[in-house]
Amino acid sequence: MRIDVVTLFPDLVNCVSGCGVTGRAVERGILDLHCWNPRDYTEDRHRTVDDRPYGGGPGMVMKVEPLRRAIHDARQADTVPPLVVYMSPQGRRLDQDAVQRLADLPRLILIAGRYEGIDERLVELEVDEEWSIGDYVLSGGELAAMVVIDACARLLPGALGDEDSAQQDSFMTGLLDCPHYTRPEVYEGRGVPQVLLGGHHAEIERWRRKQALGRTWQRRPDLLEHRVLDEADQRLLDEYRRELAD
Ligand SMILES: CN1CCN(c2ccccc2CNc2ccc(C(N)=O)cn2)CC1
User: Fold this and answer.
1) pTM for the model
2) CA-atom Rg of the chain in angstroms
C-alpha cells in the first residue's frame, strides 16, 4: 500500500517509519510512505503557505496553490489512482470498519491541515473524503494522519508477525479487549486468574471471550446495541453479569 501525506511537518509524519509495526511495514516494503511539503511549492521569497482569512477573525488559513501543487505531484508520483482524504474535526468519525476499507485501497493521499484549516476551494477541487479520528481539536492534521497510517499498516498482510496478529485485535471482533497478565504471578498481593495458569486452552478462550463481552457491556454498551449475540455469547455475558452480582 502506498500512502502520500501532504504536510508542513514531514519530519513529524516520517517518525512512523522509524519504529514499531509501521517502521517494520515500511522496511519490508509492505507500506510505501512519502511526504510532500506545500512549502516546497511556494513561489515567493518568503515561501508563504498561509494568508489572512476573508471575513476577518483570528489565525491564518492555508492557501490553495501550494497545497494544490503538492497534491498534484503526489498524484503523479504513482500511476495508481489515489483516494484523497482530508483529516479534519469536520470529518466522519473513523472506526475499525472505516480503517479496514482504507487499508484495502492500493493508495491514499492524506492531507494534514495546520493553522485554522485550509481554503475550502482546495477541499472542493481535490478532496474525496473527510475523516476525523475523534471529537477533539489538534494543532494539525499530522497526528490524525499518523493514526490512520498506523491503524491501516497493522492490517496489511505481513505487517504483523503471528505473535500479535490483528485478527485477535479487540476492535476486529467488535468487542473491547480482555484483561492481560504476565509475570510475576503475584504482584503486591494481586494474583492472576487461575484459568490463565491452567493451560486449558478451551477454558482460557472461553474466559477471554466472557471478559471481552462483559467489559464491552459494562463500558461500551453502544457497541452491543446493533449486535445480535449468538446463544453462546449471550450465555457467557449472562454468566459474567451473574458473577458481578455475587
Ligand atoms: C487550531 N486549529 C488547528 C487546525 N485545525 C484543523 C481544522 C481543519 C482541518 C484540520 C485541522 C488540523 N487539526 C485537526 C485535524 C484533525 C482532527 C481530528 N479530530 O481528526 C483534529 N484536529 C483546527 C484548529
Assistant:
1) 0.95
2) 23
Cα–ligand 1 centroid distance for 38 (angstroms): 17
How much distance in Å is there from the Cα of 169 to the middle of ligand 1?
28
Q: Is the CB of 127 under 6 A from ligand 1?
A: no
So what's the ipTM on this one? 0.96
Spatial contact of 26 and 152, defined as CB atoms under 8 Å apart: no
Tens digits of residue pLDDT in 180-195: 999 999 999 999 999 9
Q: Answer yes or no: are the C-beta atoms of 63 and 50 closer than 8 Å.
A: yes
Virtual torsion, Cα 150, 151, 157, 160, nearest 10 deg: 70
Give the residue ranges of the annotated binding site for S-adenosyl-L-methionine: 113, 133-138
What is the CB neighbour count within 10 angstroms for residue 104? 11
Q: Does 163 have pLDDT greater than 90? A: no
pLDDT digits (tens, 9 = 90+) for 71-107: 999 999 999 999 999 999 999 999 999 999 999 999 9
Amino acid sitting at position 66: P
H-assigned helices in the chain = 10-13, 20-27, 64-76, 96-103, 120-126, 142-153, 170-173, 194-197, 201-219, 222-225, 231-245
Instruction: Give me the active site residues, please.
Output: 89, 116, 154, 169
**Cβ neighbours, 10 Å, residue 83:** 15
Ligand 1 centroid to Cα of residue 117, in Å, is 7
Q: Please state, in angstroms and as integers, the Cα–Cα distance from residue 213 to each residue in 21, 195, 196, 203, 245, following that order.
A: 27, 17, 17, 15, 16
- Spatial CA neighbour of 88 closest among 49, 118, 50: 118
